[in-house]
Amino acid sequence: MNKRNMHNIKQLLLSVSLTMTMTVTACGTTAPTRFYTLSNTYQSAPSPTSYKTIDLRPVKVPERFKRPQIVLNSATSPQLILLENERWGAMFDDELHDAIYSELTHLVAPTQKAYQVNVTLQQLQVIKGQSVQADFSWKVQSLNTISSDVKADATLCQFDTQQMIGNSVDAVVQGMQKVVTQLSNKIAQHIKTLDTGTAPDCEP
Q1: CB of 141 within 8 A of CB of 152?
Q2: Residue 133: helix, strand or coil by DSSP?
């Protein structure tokens, strides 16, 4: 093998080595994935009897939110922004269910009856540095009524809210936690009113 061929082989090996080094370096600098929860984790565990009071069904959300990535709206276009490295601890609809359920079990003391709660997220717009806007509806029914032959109509209630947020993902999550707290307070008051035997005062 002549010197020219040897030189070409060395150059090729050097090129491959540099490429591999750059690839490893690039992989090593990939941003880590951060996970968030909608639940207020500082809350103490609820009374075991409160679990028997509320049957929160799976929360319905638009298809675009049935994913673990945090979804933002663009402030200047209809574009949706998926944050691949900023995720919920579970699928968003599951996170929403668990957060609402956690709040309700702390807000509602054991009642005379057990209640089934159905919650739907109708609209959600999250613009970082601006606001979280959410539109929910819900129904509450006594489990005794549901199991009877004659099923009574449940009042459909609505709740719209807007929370101003800062220009960070942490601020987005905190804003959404406040939305969950507000919604849960509304539903809890609904349950407490029903338990007294009076009609709930909520917006149809």
Answers
A1: yes
A2: strand
